[in-house]
Design goal:
The structure is a single chain. By secondary structure, this protein is an alpha+beta fold. The chain contains six helices and 15 strands. The protein has three domains: about 110 residues, no CATH class; about 110 residues, no CATH class; about 35 residues, no CATH class. It is globular and about 55 Å long. The N terminus and C terminus are likely disordered. The structure holds 2-acetamido-2-deoxy-beta-D-glucopyranose (NAG) (2 copies). The site of one 2-acetamido-2-deoxy-beta-D-glucopyranose has 3 residues, from helix 5.
């Protein structure tokens, strides 16, 4: 008797997190929504809906909320790429949203409460009373932050830490809905990781559009494919780089005849040279690669050792820390 009671308890605790128990091999999932259709403050999961058998969106617990455990889901741009299954091009459904008792990624469940966030997004911003940023469930800044007041209503891409990164567009409903900033965040993360690993992998490039989304055609390490502009997932066959014009997403008007933009191709060539030199034991430090924006254009401020200049103004400045270029995001320029 006691045995059955325990079994019942076990089933009841599962019910809290998944709603029920089912043999997933008996379940067929008819999915007609995409990961990026998940509503604000939810995360896509392959095992969210129908007793954990089918994809859906999970609503996790935020800082200081009551919880039961930690989640295995990751809450960053890579979450999109780990999604199994392809993009559904004519998706029509609203995804199912399942409430979970787990803390959002990055938070830990201690004494039935999710911990404080390591991020500092607050509404309104403590350090800038004029700005009310949009915060994600883990206490970080949302990727897209829109400003509506003034004559310049625009949306910008932000890192989780609240730093403005590459990517912006006008704040209209249509543009705002399209803008996901996942490419901008991916490139920002890649850059941070490349700094950490001493630029051993800086031949890896993603191309972002000016609004921070992925460009529809991506080439990486000698291979090209058409990508979903919001998630970067491949939506076509993959071809050798020389064959990039045969891809269905190639457009001669907008893409021209060379894949790499001027800045990119210079940076890429130098990255390859450095790789070769490192391989042959040469000293690669003497070569300074140009700093490119994720859309392949030159970054507003270019630095070579201790010498910096603004590209638009072609102005040399002896002290790189004092130089402020228009378009220099890190210094707050627009
Ligand atoms: C998507 O479109 C294809 C072809 O137009 C069709 O066969 C398929 O059933 C559609 N899928 C959904 C989920 O509507
Ligand atoms: C290429 O892009 C231009 C500009 O966006 C567009 O007008 C044109 O229809 C596109 N061509 C093809 C073949 O898709």
């Amino acid at each position: 008797m006691k045995y059955f009671y325990l079994l019942f308890l076990f089933a009841a605790s599962l019910q809290v997190s998944f709603g029920c128990t089912l043999d997933c091999s008996q379940v067929t999932c008819a999915q007609s929504f995409n990961p990026f259709d998940c509503p604000s403050n939810t995360l896509y999961s392959n095992t969210a809906a129908l007793c954990g058998c089918c994809p859906g969106c999970v609503r996790l617990k935020g800082p200081n909320e009551e919880c039961q455990s930690n989640t295995k889901l990751t809450f960053d741009v890579t979450n999109f790429y780990t999604v199994k299954g392809s993009i559904i091009l004519n998706a029509t459904d609203v995804p199912p949203v399942v409430a979970s008792q787990e803390c959002a990624p990055g938070l830990t469940c201690d004494n039935s409460r999710c911990s404080n966030s390591k991020y500092t997004c607050t509404t309104p911003d403590i350090s800038n009373s004029k700005w009310s940023p949009e915060c994600d469930i883990d206490g970080s800044h949302k990727a897209v932050q829109c400003k509506s007041n003034g004559a310049d209503p625009r949306c910008f891409c932000y890192s989780k830490e609240g730093k403005r990164i590459f990517g912006s567009d006008w704040n209209t409903k249509e543009k705002r809905d399209k803008m996901k900033c996942q490419c901008a965040r991916l490139v920002d993360n890649l850059k941070k990781n490349q700094e950490k690993d001493g630029y051993k992998n800086n031949d890896l490039t993603y191309h972002c559009s000016s609004n921070g989304n992925f460009e529809p055609l991506q080439c990486n390490r000698g291979m090209c494919y058409c990508a979903n502009t919001q998630t970067g997932q491949p939506v076509s066959f993959v071809v050798n780089a020389q064959m990039w014009k045969t891809l269905p997403c190639y457009n001669a008007t907008t893409m021209g005849f060379v894949y790499l933009k001027i800045c990119d191709s210079r940076a890429n060539a130098l990255a390859l040279i450095k790789k070769e030199m490192r391989y042959h034991g040469g000293n690669p430090i003497t070569l300074a690669a140009p700093q490119c924006d994720p859309d392949g254009s030159f970054y507003a401020k270019q630095c070579d050792g201790n010498q910096c200049y603004c590209r638009s103004q072609q102005q040399e400045a002896p002290d790189k820390n004092k130089l402020l270029c228009s378009g220099d995001r890190e210094k707050g320029g627009e």
